[in-house]
Queue: 2 jobs
Job 1
Amino acid sequence: MDTAVLDLIRRSRRVLAICHVSPDGDAIGSLLGLGWALKAMDKEVTLACADPVPVFYRYLPGQGEIVRRPEGMFDLVISLDCSDKERLGDAYREEYHALPLLNIDHHVTNQYFGTANLVDPEAASTAEIVFLLLDELGLPIDPPMAQCLLTGIVTDTRGFRTVSSTPRVLAIANRLMAAGASLPEIVGRTLDRRPLAMIRLWGQALPGAQLRGKILWAEITEAMRAEAGLTTVDDGGLVNFLLTAEEAEVAVVFSEKNGGQEVEVSFRARPGWDVAQVALSLGGGGHMLASGATVRGKLAEVREGVLALLEESLAAQERARRER
Ligand code: 5GP
Ligand code: MN
């Protein structure tokens, strides 16, 4: 592992760690796992996320300490699970620009924006990279760290179902369970749990799902969310569910937000395709098989534009495959 990374951590006293906006299980899990570890190293630690911790991650030890807007002085900022600096949102303030920034991430679209970059696109989750970092620092894993880090791994692999679920991932999961993490609790709290309102929202969105070639897409309007009684923009895993359709190679969910001025786009693909580049070209990012972006514009307009781009990209990928 890069000694610059280890030196940054060893030399720091007051650390601010930040995960991405609209946090998922890997964002919160890697943030808290690292937070517990830094405390065990006797550092002063502030943990931040520009958006609130989603309710289903509130079982994680230490989550109540995560702040929206950090205050105070720091000598190191650590970014977790962010492919670009914008993903830090306004938890990353103007005055931190002079501080060293350690970028820990696993997105293939990572922009290497840190002073030091611990980026591994082969890793299934940022939590896994944090685990390897703690191993390198020789820090023993205690039960709270283990529970947080295993949450990151389990949520980003959807319970070890993704192509990123390598033997290394399972070996690390094994060590985290041996250190005190509970796999059934994590699965029960995250993957196997959603509000009834979310199921009703799916009920509204699913009849409108349409197949366009190999792309299965659906949309969630603000009116549907209001009807279901939901305030958060996340789709509760709808895009993953759509990709279970036999006819689909790629699934997309368009979610209207910010009073109809913006659309959150979520892409998923079966192995063999790449949806990271389309997301990147829209100003977002992610992985080959799971990516996303926020696009300005009206829902129907954005949907037609994005589907056209996506069709073009898939056709180019197909041509490239035939020529190989
Ligand atoms: P999801 O569809 O679950 O929101 O996101 C899938 C993947 O795409 C995640 O790895 C997430 O970090 C990434 N992603 C989603 N939205 C954005 C975005 O607006 N910007 C960037 N850089 N990545 C995104
Ligand atoms: Mn992640």
Note: The pocket of guanosine-5'-monophosphate (ligand 1) is lined by residues 83-84, 87, 107, 239, 266, 284-287, 290-294 (CB under 6 Å).
Job 2
Amino acid sequence: MKRITPILLLMFCSSFTQAQHITPKPQKITLNEGPSFTLNNEVIIEYNQNSLKELSILLSGSIKQATKLSLAPIGPNKSEKKKISLVLVKQDQTKDFNKEAYTLEVKKTGVVITSADQAGIFNGISSLMQLIPVSTDGKALEAWDIPAVQISDKPAFKWRGVMLDPARYFMTKEYVLRYLDMMAMHKLNVLHWHLIDDCGWRIEIKKYPKLTEVGAWRGTGKNKHGGFYSQEDIKEIVAYAALRNIEIVPEIEIPAHTLSALAAYPHLGCNNTKFNVPTKHSISPEIYCVGKETTWEFLQNVMDEVVPLFPSKYIHVGGDEARYNRWKKCEHCQKVIKDNGLKNERELQGWATRRIAKYLEPKGKVVIGWEEILACGIERSTGIMTWHKYSTAIEAAKNGHPVVMSPVKHTYIDTPESKLPGEPPAATWTPPVTLSKAYNWDVIPKGLTAEQAKNILGPNTTLWNDRFLHNAKQLADKPGEGTTASEAYMDYLSLPRIAATAEVGWTPKANRDYSDFLKRMGTMYHRYIQKGYNFRLPTPELRVKRLADGKLSFSADSPVYNGELRYTLDGSEPTKESEILDKPVTASSKQSMKIATLIPYAKMRSLTYTYTAKGNKYAKYGAQIGEWKSAMVAGKTPREETFDATGLINKNGTYEITFVYTGGEFGLDVKGLKVVRNDVDLSAENKKVGFAGGSGVSKHIVKIDNYQTGASFKIKANICGDLGSDSNGVVMIKRLK
Ligand code: ACM
Ligand code: ZN
């Protein structure tokens, strides 16, 4: 039998595939026999308790945004009209109670979302919104049929978080609200809000106005940058989040990453030194003096204003990357060490963490901090957020601490998704976090018993903004798709990777399947377009097969439904006019291919993926970056030709460029070459003159010491025929070290 591709399946049997297209994947979803439910203006939204009124208004607004239909939300109703019913039910709260669990049933006669809590009702709404058809070609849909399904669903983990970092690069209240919508769409339920760092203090504290008058701004004149959230802003943001089942956990760093506070109030440091808010990212050695009671008065007063603003159980106190140089020389800090029999400054940090935890405990708050605090000596109730060393998660979970998993390799989305040319400048201290890496990991570290594993609360992805400090000037405002220092750039780094985190947190590991996730994302991208989110459209996953006759067969599936895969075989960039890869293409064994995903109606194009033929007879010289043909070397006067080495120059190092003669009556003279990065000449220049002809090759070495993620790299060479114009060959590049 002929295999039906997913796209055909979508056409023949759209209700089935749409029913599956919920991300994160529900625990149990069955397609009911029978016709679907038709949404139209006659349908009402009914809720059985007044506490659901706001959610029913939210649902009505979301449906209006997606379909333009106006569904009236009304309370308990006996009308015979077709309805979407939101139903809060009583449930034995002691037995397996999960407030986020819900059921969703769609029949021809109506839709019913049931849960024992508003959290579950919200999750049901979120799933329902993904059952509503979405246009995949930009044409307005005319019918709004929701497939007949039965869903029974609950999350695997109770913490499914994203960390936003407005401290390093301020994001407006409007953007935070928009980001909360992005999170809610994926059932992400914790916004970990990094409100304080060396480069900015972002929360209004009425008792200490200088925190935001001074600490929220850096630079001067037209370079002044910053902002903060007033307490009114915060109340609005917290309420907006709560309706969407998102809890906001503020991060109030103690003791390090606090130079913005010291700039406002120098007495908070060990030496009363005056500082400016730094304009460049680095981790400051200036930290709170925890030996002075005046610092404690400050910290407690700050917490007194923070606590009522955030209903969350946890308050994050940072605690990462503290350097103790100042404490070592501070009489106040040393006195606390001595008076309390502490061994060293690390134990002093433990003492400070315990002290703030103790202060917050009667206010109903639990402290959580980065993994570093574990080694400082803390109470068992204090939470640990592992970012770097899995051993801290294991040790903490074994000892009964609540643990949140934020491993760099899988959740640090301040990194780019790849090293492909065109990727925005992003964090380079750790390798790219591909979508596959964001998806394929287990939240429970190895080595824990089932009982200990219960201490793992869930995953938390982190969108650090320190890179924006470095790049804000280099990043143009909006070149192409999403390479900007602005909020579109934050969208781009987040989507689709937060969808992966969402599924990692929601769907039990045994039910997760990366290829199934990618298929569902094929629909999700259209929902992002509908909502105006800027996302990273994936490049095609090109399959290259060597056939029995030695030729290559290229094939690929579009990562997005109704997407186009456009390719070239001549080394040029694929455009909307290039050939479409919709069936396997056969080519010679030496053929390279450039290919990109396009969504024509949204004018979106992915980055280009370049396949460079391996195993050709020049492979010992590396990868091919171009060729010269007789027409190019018409005379004996050298002319500059450009060869694209983007993606092949992929880190700092020494590269060898080789001109290999392949045929023709004459050879080639190479009269020097240089490397150009993003149209800027690099010092990597090689004036060596060489000759390629017969079996002789012309080799040229360049050294790259200012590699930049995402930049293009071109080799510009001055070449001409040695005696006449009939000369042909290939240009290769290889990294030597
Ligand atoms: C961290 O990345 N410093 C927690
Ligand atoms: Zn001190």
Note: The radius of gyration is 29 Å.
